[in-house]
């Protein structure tokens, strides 16, 4: 077990490179199972979640080889089993993403309920309903079992705009016989990356980036060489870090279009940045002040499906708001346990009123002090790192495994820009 030891109160300065999008890499790894050809994936983040997904691929008989840093070669010539080892399935929620590819390629998939962040109920019904529309039989009795003699195209209306359910449905539909239309589909940049990769493998997907996907099934897919896009969630985290610590920071390898929803919400806290090419710059001299709504009303930062503000960044925004002059409402609509980490921020000196499981009123700026913290999930853990770097004195953060599931080489990258942080055995 490891923990972070952080001494806060020091401004940061320098450049960090954006990692590959974790939430794109995970379905793209699963999609490599759809072909017997060789798939080369570039810009894959070196994090625990991708390592677990690659291990699951190997358990199916796929040859997995690291070519260089962040580059992996996958060849799933033969599938020797269609059940996911329980110990791997329980480590990561994204293990559910193998259901669609296994069904399409082998006609069967068996898995234990997936693990992942504990941020409230995370229903899987939409996955089951979408795959059933394509002709799959689903059994839920301790384990999830999917089977199909043949998948056929269908008109699918998703009952919620679920990212992973959209991805599972797309991966099953590309090899289904006939035409599929998926309405109320998720359209996040990572969903777009998956669809672009599948098209590079020979799939026929149209409407990428919209909430209606048109798919004509093909007989087989071939290998490809595909590069994962930048992780806009990580980029948003570093923007929040720079603003909260009054630091100057450059982030390279960004994709400006992915950041448009972020710019609106960060702008409500007075946070600005400039993008030139693929380099984003946050300056240390900006005024951090809440921009009131018309009539002097308290503004709201709330999440919604893309192109709304991403729910994964509400934890980051909560911490940033503690360092901004004024009052703002953070409204996390999707997960009823995500906001419970604010009690730790309150113990550090933050002025936050948790109204209910979804809403918190933050009044700033607050002078934070060091504290012993425990990371409950990936994003709240990163929010705690930002809080600790803002705070006076020393902090300890335990359960950093959760943070490192989503942030690549975090400690060394933070050290490179002047953060006083160490990773030590606890």
Overview of this protein structure:
By secondary structure, this protein is an alpha+beta fold. The protein has helices spanning 22-31, 48-59, 86-89, 99-106, 125-133, 163-173, 189-200, 232-244, 260-267, 314-321, 342-347, 378-390, 401-404, 410-416, and strands at residues 2-7, 13-17, 38-42, 63-68, 71-75, 108-111, 137-141, 143-147, 155-157, 179-183, 204-206, 212-216, 224-227, 248-252, 274-276, 279-282, 300-302, 326-331, 351-356, 359-364, 372-374, 394-398, 420-425. The strands form 6 sheets. The protein has a 4-stranded mixed sheet with strand order 21-22-1-23, with helices on one face. A 4-stranded mixed sheet has the order 2-14-16-15. The chain has a 4-stranded mixed sheet with strand order 4-5-3-13, with helices on one face. Strand 21 (372-374), helix 12 (378-390) and strand 22 (394-398) form a beta-alpha-beta unit. Helix 4 packs parallel to helix 6 (163-173) and helix 8 runs parallel beside helix 12 (378-390).
Query: Low-confidence parts lasting 5 or more residues at pLDDT below 50?
Result: 116-121
- Helical stretch count? 14
Overall geometry comes to globular
Overall radius of gyration: 22 Å
Structural class from helices and strands? Answer: alpha+beta
Strand arrangement within the widest β-sheet reads: 21-22-1-23
Number of β-strand runs: 23
Quaternary form: single chain
Termini separation: 6 Å
Pick out its properties.
23 strands, alpha+beta, four-stranded mixed sheet, 29% helix, 426 residues
In short, what is this structure?
This protein has 426 residues and is of the alpha+beta class. Helix content is 29%, strand content 25%. The chain has helices at 22-31, 48-59, 86-89, 99-106, 125-133, 163-173, 189-200, 232-244, 260-267, 314-321, 342-347, 378-390, 401-404, 410-416; strands at 2-7, 13-17, 38-42, 63-68, 71-75, 108-111, 137-141, 143-147, 155-157, 179-183, 204-206, 212-216, 224-227, 248-252, 274-276, 279-282, 300-302, 326-331, 351-356, 359-364, 372-374, 394-398, 420-425.
């Amino acid at each position: 077990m490891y923990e972070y030891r952080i001494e806060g109160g020091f401004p940061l300065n320098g450049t960090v490179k954006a990692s590959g999008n974790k939430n794109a890499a995970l379905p793209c790894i699963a999609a490599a199972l759809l072909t017997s050809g060789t798939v080369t994936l570039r810009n894959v983040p070196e994090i625990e979640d991708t390592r677990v997904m690659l291990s699951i691929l190997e358990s199916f008989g796929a040859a997995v080889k690291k070519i260089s840093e962040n580059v992996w070669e996958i060849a799933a010539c033969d599938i020797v089993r269609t059940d996911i080892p329980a110990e791997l399935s329980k480590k990561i929620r994204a293990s559910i993403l193998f259901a669609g590819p296994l069904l399409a390629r082998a006609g069967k998939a068996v898995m234990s309920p997936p693990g992942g962040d504990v941020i409230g109920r995370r229903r899987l019904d939409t996955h089951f309903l979408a795959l059933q529309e394509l002709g799959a039989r689903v059994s839920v009795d301790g384990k999830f079992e999917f089977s199909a003699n043949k998948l056929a195209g269908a008109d699918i209306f998703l009952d919620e705009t679920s990212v992973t359910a959209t991805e599972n449905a797309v991966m099953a539909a590309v090899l289904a016989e006939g035409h599929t239309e998926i309405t109320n589909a998720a359209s996040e940049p990572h969903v777009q990356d998956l669809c672009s990769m599948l098209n590079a493998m020979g799939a026929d997907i149209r409407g990428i980036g919209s909430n209606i996907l048109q798919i004509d099934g093909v007989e087989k897919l071939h290998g490809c060489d595909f590069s994962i896009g930048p992780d806009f969630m990580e980029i948003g985290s570093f923007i929040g870090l720079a603003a909260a610590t009054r630091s100057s920071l450059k982030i390279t390898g960004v994709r400006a279009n992915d950041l448009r929803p972020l710019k609106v919400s960060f702008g409500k806290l007075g946070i600005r940045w400039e993008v030139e090419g693929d380099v984003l710059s946050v300056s240390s001299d900006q005024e951090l002040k809440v921009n009131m709504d018309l009539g002097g009303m308290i503004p709201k930062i709330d999440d919604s499906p893309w192109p709304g503000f991403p729910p994964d960044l509400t934890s980051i925004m909560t911490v940033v708001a503690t360092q901004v002059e004024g009052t703002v409402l953070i409204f996390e609509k999707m997960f009823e346990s995500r906001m419970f980490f604010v009690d730790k921020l309150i113990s550090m000196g933050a002025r936050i009123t948790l109204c209910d499981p979804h809403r918190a009123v933050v009044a700033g700026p607050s002078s934070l002090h060091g504290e012993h913290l425990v990371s409950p999930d990936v994003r709240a853990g990163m929010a705690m790192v930002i809080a600790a770097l803002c705070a006076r004195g020393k902090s300890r953060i335990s359960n950093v495994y959760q943070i490192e599931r989503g942030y690549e080489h975090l400690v060394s990258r933070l050290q490179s820009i002047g953060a006083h942080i160490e990773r030590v055995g606890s």
